Backbone:
């Protein structure tokens, strides 16, 4: 995680001197986080993460999970957030209004606004799937909520949200009326943030088996308790349908296929001739096979395998495909792992070209936020040079609109999906 860029020559107060938010904040926080000199600009710009390296000291008594006011080194109010001494993100910011308390009404208002957006998008359907809350993009840093049919899957990545989770759950119950709510945590994030939540059913009833949703007219069974992430990769909804348009009469290879999203769209909407899906997770393959059967898809076959080894074996056996889909897990989990991740993406895409026919379609994705679109273009350039094949980018895509990007937190723009023709 990198610190937001600052201009060391700028005085952020100069442009905002007439703003009432520069008054000293009183009455809402017991303590203040005092910034180092010339560190305030990104936070005036509403970036929500205040890293430990930007803070000079804490003034007053504060415990993890408490509200603090972020102040410049000259004592001017910047924003209000929640403190966590266990995280590199020492303060997560939620309000830039000096008069706004981070109370129950505040959290309710943010949740209502987030849910209303999904209703406007036409995605709040009882049998559908959508992301109701997308952390920083919805002004709720540390909280992700997915609606999967009649259930909610909640992922908590911030200590301040964990401490307020009971109240948040009550509001979600009132707004969405789910049958049950599951909690999901990522071990690495939980450890880094000091979040102590157990995965599993948090409230209500669990489905007797998989939960079922309909997406793009296709039915899917979802493992809410143990499936990857929150149970289903909703962010690829539009990309799965877009990729399907290029699959007609092609032999398709779907790597890291998970529960069959790209494969089933390719069969049902794309008219693919044959589809072979691979994933290293036995549970994912079982779900993919069940989902194919559920939708009467007979052209798709799924196999458990390490995807890199599977690509090697397909090359050795001289297998060729008219389309290859690459939707791997996050390779870059931190800024320090970026170089290794780019090498892994390069290797994966290079191997895909070894089994792709001339004129074939490459659908290649990255969900690593630390890998930029520019990075991805450059690695594809390297693949083209090394393979001596031309790569034409037909579409550059991102996450579905229920995963909006906040212009004040570009880290929320994480998913890249390139649809390419390879000659």
Residues:
């Amino acid at each position: 995680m990198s610190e937001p860029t600052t201009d060391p020559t700028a005085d952020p107060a100069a442009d905002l001197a007439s703003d009432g938010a520069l008054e000293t904040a009183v009455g809402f926080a017991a303590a203040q986080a005092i910034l180092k000199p010339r560190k305030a600009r990104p936070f005036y710009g509403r970036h929500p993460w205040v890293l430990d390296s930007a803070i000079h000291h804490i003034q007053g008594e504060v415990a993890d999970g408490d509200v603090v006011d972020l102040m410049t080194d000259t004592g001017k109010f910047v924003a209000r957030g929640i403190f966590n001494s266990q995280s590199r993100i020492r303060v997560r910011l939620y309000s830039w209004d000096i008069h706004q308390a981070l109370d129950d009404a505040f959290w309710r208002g943010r949740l209502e606004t987030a849910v209303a957006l999904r209703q406007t998008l036409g995605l709040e359907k009882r049998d559908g799937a959508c992301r109701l809350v997308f952390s920083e993009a919805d002004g709720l840093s540390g909280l992700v909520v997915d609606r999967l049919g009649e259930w909610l899957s909640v992922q908590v990545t911030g200590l301040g949200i964990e401490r307020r989770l009971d109240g948040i759950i009550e509001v979600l119950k009132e707004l969405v009326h789910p049958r049950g709510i599951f909690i999901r945590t990522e071990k690495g994030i939980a450890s880094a943030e000091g979040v102590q939540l157990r995965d599993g059913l948090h409230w209500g009833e669990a489905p007797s088996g998989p939960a079922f949703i309909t997406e793009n007219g296709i039915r899917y069974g979802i493992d809410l308790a143990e499936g990857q992430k929150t149970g289903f990769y909703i962010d690829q909804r539009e990309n799965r349908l877009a990729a399907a348009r290029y699959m007609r009469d092609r032999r398709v290879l779907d790597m890291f296929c998970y529960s069959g999203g790209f494969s089933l769209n390719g069969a049902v909407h794309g008219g693919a001739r044959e589809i072979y899906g691979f994933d290293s997770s036995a549970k994912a393959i079982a779900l993919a096979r069940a989902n194919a059967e559920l939708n009467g898809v007979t052209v798709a076959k799924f196999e458990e395998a390490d995807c890199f080894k599977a690509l090697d074996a397909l090359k050795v056996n001289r297998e060729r495909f008219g389309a290859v889909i690459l939707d791997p897990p996050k390779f870059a989990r931190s800024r320090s792992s970026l170089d290794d991740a780019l090498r892994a993406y390069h290797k994966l895409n290079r191997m895909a070209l070894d089994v792709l026919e001339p004129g074939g379609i490459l659908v290649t994705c990255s969900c690593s936020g630390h890998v930029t679109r520019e990075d991805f273009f450059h690695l594809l350039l390297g693949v083209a040079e090394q393979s001596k094949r031309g790569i034409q980018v037909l579409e550059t895509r991102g996450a579905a609109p229920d995963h909006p990007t906040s212009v004040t937190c570009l880290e929320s723009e994480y998913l890249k999906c390139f649809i390419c023709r390879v000659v």
